[in-house]
Design a protein that fits this description.
Elements: H1 3-21, H2 27-43, H3 49-71, H4 86-89, E1 94-102, E2 105-110, E3 113-118, E4 127-134, E5 137-142
Parallel strand pairs: 3-5
Antiparallel strand pairs: 1-2, 1-4, 2-3, 4-5
Helix pairs in contact: 1-2, 2-3
């Protein structure tokens, strides 16, 4: 077995393993480029190393561009687009003020977490709806 065949095969497997360990759909496409060069050097003898590297770069770029053009367009829409945006998940929620809003500032508790709120002055115990978020401060209005 020739060293370049083993080298390109090992590189392709390492890139596929890296993608499996840290998924992000990027190492996969570079691994496909390495696998294509592996196939070429396995079936065509005496391909100079420079042309192998050029082919690897070209195949990798083509694979990445194919993914960017067709793969992303067919990607599934997330069933939880606000999963890591906790404050955005609170918009529309109705809850009760634990501390009244005085001079535009107050506090409320949602899911055992305290939040600073802004809005018109309201007494404690008023039902409010979260209408917007600015950083970690919720904007509320009477529900």
């Amino acid at each position: 077995m020739r060293w370049e065949v083993v080298g390109w095969g090992a590189l392709a497997l390492l890139l596929f393993a890296a993608e499996a360990l840290a998924p992000g759909a990027f190492m996969l496409w570079i691994g496909i480029g390495a696998a294509m060069v592996f196939l070429i050097v396995a079936f065509v003898a005496d391909v100079p190393l420079l042309w192998q590297v050029v082919a690897f770069v070209v195949f990798s770029v083509v694979a990445i561009q194919c993914y960017r053009r067709w793969g992303r367009a067919r990607a599934r829409a997330s069933d939880a687009p606000l999963l890591n945006q906790r404050t955005a998940q609170l918009v529309g929620r109705v809850t009760v003020l634990q501390q009244g809003i005085v001079a535009g500032q107050g506090r409320l508790s949602i899911d055992d977490a305290w939040w600073q709120v802004t809005g018109e002055d309201l007494p404690a115990g008023t039902r409010v709806r979260v209408v917007a978020v600015q950083g970690a401060v919720l904007q509320v209005e009477p529900a």
